[in-house]
Amino acid sequence: MEVDSKLLNVGALLIATLVAAKIIAAFLIPRSRKRLPPVVKAFPVVGGLLRFLKGPIVMLRQEYPKLGSVFTLNLVNKNITFLIGPEVSAHFFKASETDLSQQEVYQFNVPTFGPGVVFDVDYSVRQEQFRFFTESLRVNKLKGYVDHMIFEAEEFFSKWGDSGEVDLKLELEHLIILTASRCLLGEEVRNKLFDDVSALFHDLDNGMLPISVIFPYLPIPAHRRRDQARKKLAEIFATIITSRKQSGKSENDMLQCFIDSKYKNGRPTSESEVTGLLIAALFAGQHTSSITSTWTGAYLLCNQKHMAAVVEEQKDLVKKHGDKVDHDILSEMNVLYRCIKEALRLHPPLIMLLRSSHSDFTVTTKEGEDYDIPKGHIVATSPAFANRLPHIFKDPDTYDPDRFGPEREEDKAAGAFSYISFGGGRHGCLGEPFAYLQIKAIWSHLLRNFELELVSPFPEIDWNAMVVGVKGKVMVRYKRKVLQ
Ligand code: HEM
Q1: What pLDDT band is residue 6 in, cutting at 50, 70 and 90?
Q2: Pocket test residue of 96, 429, 440, 467 for ligand 1, highest count of atoms within 8 A of CB
Q3: How confident is the model at residue 48, as a pLDDT?
Q4: Are 169 and 474 within 8 A, CB to CB?
Q5: H or E, element range at 82
Q6: Where in the sequence is the domain holding 386, given as residue range(s)?
Q7: Which of 36, 105, 107, 189 could form a disulfide linkage to 354, CB 3.0–4.6 angstroms apart?
C-alpha cells in the first residue's frame, strides 16, 4: 500500500513538474526567441557614444555593409536602433505617437521655441498646433506668399551690379531670411524691425549647439543669450499682435494665420503661442531652404546638361506667359523641380530623424530577416544615408535629376519611404510646397536674368552644423543678361 502511495506521489509530482515546465516555457521561450538586431562593436560604456559623435554617417557607412539595414548602437545608458531603407522604415514613419514619439528626442527645442508649443505640449495639443501650420500653408495662402517671394527676389537681385563676384551661399542665406520674414513674420518685422529681429534670431540660432541636445538648460553664455532673445522676441510679437488686433488689420502671412487660429474648444492662440509657432516655423524652414538653394546652384553650375535644360524651361515659360511669375507658373517648372529635388537627395539638411519607442515592434528586412525592437530604444533613420542606397537610386552619388522623370521615378519605385529628405508619413514636412516655391522663385529669377559661373571649387559638406549644410564660401561670378 505504502509503495503504491509513494508511486502515486512520484507520478503526481512528475505530472505537476511537466505542467509547470510547460507553463514556464510558454512564458519564457517566446522571450528567448526574440531576435534582437545586431549590435555595433564598440569599446564598453562610452565606445558607442564616441563613434556616434565622431560622425553618425561615417558610422552608418561602416556598419551597414556588415550588419545590414537594422542594427543597434549602445549609447552609454541608451540603445539607438537604426532602420535604414524603405523596406524597414515604414513603421518609423507611420507609427502612432503612443508607439513611437518625438516629444522626448526633440525636447531640446523647448527653450528655443518657448513654453506651450510643439514639444512642450501633449500630443493632442501639438496635433492642433500642426493643424494651424497646415492651414497657414494651404494653396490659397501659398499663392499670396509667392507674390512676396517674387518681390523679395527682384528687389534683392536688383542690388547686384551688372557684373561681379559674390559668395552665393551668403547671398541666398540673406535673401531667404528676408523672404521668410515677409511671408511668415509679417510686414511689420520685414519693413521696420528686420535688423532687430534678425539679430535676435541669430542669438536663438547660436544657442542651439550639439551640447544643447543633451543639456538644453546648461548655464552657458550661448544659452543665456538664447533665453534673453526668446523673451525679447515674445515682447516684439506681443506688440505687433496687439496692434493688429486693435486696428482690425488682416495680412496675408503666417503670423495672421496663427493669430486667427482656434483650438477645438474655441480657445484662441495666446501671444506667447503665436511667437513660439513662428519661431518653430523659421527654425524648420530657414536653414533647410537656404542650404538647398545653394546646393542646387552648385550642381547646376557644374552640370552643363542640366543647366541648359533649366534655362530652356525658363525660355519656354517666358514664351508662354511673358515675364510674369506666380504660383501656377512656378508649379509648371518641372525640370527645375527635379534639379532641386536631386540636390536635396544628395544633401538633406536633416541627416538624422529620431523617435522614442514605447512598445515592442518587429521589422522584416528585404532579405526576409525578422528583428524585434524592444520598447525603450531610440529609433533612428537617416535621410543622408538612405537617400544614397544603391538598390534604390542608380549611381547614387551622381547628380542625376532625370532619375525622378516619368520613365524612372526612382523616388517611388521602392515605395513611399524611398526618398526621405522631407521625412514622410505621420510627421512628413508641412513646409515642403513652401520650400520648393521659395527655391524655384529664387532660381527662376537668377536663371532668367544672369549668366553665372562657379569660381571656387565644388563645395564640401559641413557635417558639424546642426542643420548640415555647405562648408566655406561658394564664389560665383555673375553677369547680368542683356534682355532682348
Ligand atoms: C528644404 C527645406 C526643408 C526640408 C529639407 C525639411 C525637412 C523636414 C523633415 C525631414 C521633417 C520631418 C522631421 C521628422 O520626421 O522628425 C520636417 C518636418 C516639418 N517641417 Fe520641414 N523641411 C523643410 C522646409 C520647411 C518649411 C519651409 C517649413 C515651414 C514653413 C517646414 C515645416 C515643418 C514642420 C511644421 C514639420 C513638422 C511636421 C510634423 O511633425 O508633423 N519645413 N521637415
Answers
A1: low
A2: 429
A3: 85
A4: yes
A5: strand 78-83
A6: 32-480
A7: 105
